[in-house]
Amino acid sequence: MTRLLGSLLLMAAAGATTLGAAPAPAHAAATPLDRVVPAPASVTPGGSPYRITRGTRVRVDASGSGSASGSGEVRRIAEYLTGVLRPSTGYRLPITDHGTGGIRLRLAEGPFGAEGYRLHSGSAGITLTASAPAGLFHGVQTLRQLLPAAVEKRTVQPGPWTVAGGTVEDRPRYGYRGAMLDVSRHFFGVAQVKRYIDQLALYKINELHLHLSDDQGWRIAVDSWPRLAPYGGSTEVGGGPGGYYTKADYREIVRYAAARYVEVVPEIDMPGHTNAALASYPELNCDGTAPPLYTGTDVGFSSLCVPKQVTYDFVDDVIRELAALTPGRYLHIGGDEAHSTSHADYVTFMNRVQPIVTKYGKTVIGWHQLTGATPVPGALAQYWGLDGTSAAEKAQVAKAAQHGTGLILSPADRVYLDMKYSKDTKLGLDWAGLVSVKRSYDWDPGSYLPGAPESAVKGVEAPLWSETLTTSADIEYMAFPRLAGAAELGWSPAATHDWDTYKVRLAAQGPRWDALGIGYFRSPEVPWQG
Ligand code: TNX
Question: Can you list the domains of the chain with their CATH numbers?
Answer without folding.
Answer: 2-170 (3.30.379.10), 176-494 (3.20.20.80)
